[in-house]
Write a structure and sequence with these properties.
The protein is α/β, with parallel strands linked by helices. Helices cover 31% and strands 12% of the residues. The longest helix has 12 residues. The termini are close together. 30% of the residues are buried.
Length: 158
């Protein structure tokens, strides 16, 4: 099983072309549109992201990080998460065209966080069905259940 959170979901369906994978899990994650860049995808389907999130830099704006990413974390966890944030994604990720023609034939699950303030829950549900043919698991809470509800997330993954 490979789990991808947030923007790393854009890379998740590429993993099976590099190594065997039994299951893909999209955790409050973006999902690429084959043949499109993320910028093109957002222009064609703006429902993916909360409009208030677009243009926010949580690495620079800690209040925005608290409001969008860590709103349902307790205060010590939120402070820790904000202090340890690191941009991880490769330069150009949003402008690079998704090389897939079709999604890999690997079972997939989409974990939708019902109070997510970044990835729109309705979009995640629709894409899980329309694009991924994935099982949907809904968890209460925001964008980072690995921080706000780790036990509940662990149960869902098991």
């Amino acid at each position: 099983m490979v789990v991808a959170h947030s923007a790393s979901g854009l890379l998740l369906p590429l993993v099976p072309s590099f190594c065997p994978v039994a299951h893909l899990v999209y955790l409050a994650a973006g999902v690429p549109q084959p043949g499109m860049t993320l910028d093109e995808q957002l222009a064609a389907d703006p429902d993916m992201l909360n409009p208030a999130w677009v243009g926010v830099d949580p690495f620079q704006d800690h209040q925005a990080a608290r409001r969008f990413l860590f709103h349902d974390c307790d205060e010590p966890t939120a402070r820790w998460a904000i202090a340890t944030q690191t941009p991880w994604y490769p330069e150009g990720l949003y402008q690079e065209r998704c090389p897939l023609v079709v999604f890999p034939s690997v079972p997939s699950t989409s974990i939708v966080c019902t109070d997510d303030r970044v990835i729109q829950p309705a979009w995640s549900r629709r894409i899980a069905s329309d694009r991924l043919d994935a099982q949907v698991i809904e968890l209460p809470g925001g964008h980072c259940p690995h921080l706000s509800r780790p036990e509940l997330l662990a149960e869902a993954l098991i």
